[in-house]
Amino acid sequence: MGKGKSTGTVYGLAFIGALVYYIQHATTFWMGVLGFFKALVWPAFLIYKLLDFLKM
């Protein structure tokens, strides 16, 4: 019954890390807003780049 709690915690910490990264590199308010949305979907970017690297 307790399975999945650590996965959510890891995703939450990674979300915060991605959010901080994107916000720090934002030059305007709207780039910061875009950074927020990028932080929500960062796993999709990661998998895409990984599959592109592996040429699958």
Q: What does this protein look like?
A:
By secondary structure, this protein is mainly α. It has one domain (about 5-55). It is built from three helices and no strands. The chain is flat. It starts with a helix and ends with a helix. The model has no long low-confidence stretch (mean pLDDT about 85).
Quick tags:
80% helix; 56 residues; mainly alpha
In a nutshell, what does this entry contain?
The chain is mostly helical and 56 residues long. Helices cover 80% and strands 0% of the residues. The protein starts with a helix and ends with a helix.
| Percent range for β-strand residues | under 5%
What best-fitting shape do the alpha-carbon axes yield?
flat
Q: Tell me the total number of β-strands.
A: 0
Order of helices and strands: HHH
- What are the low-pLDDT stretches, counting only 5+ consecutive residues below 50? none
Task: Detail the topology: elements first, then pairings.
Layout: H1 5-24, H2 29-40, H3 42-54
Helix pairs in contact: 1-2
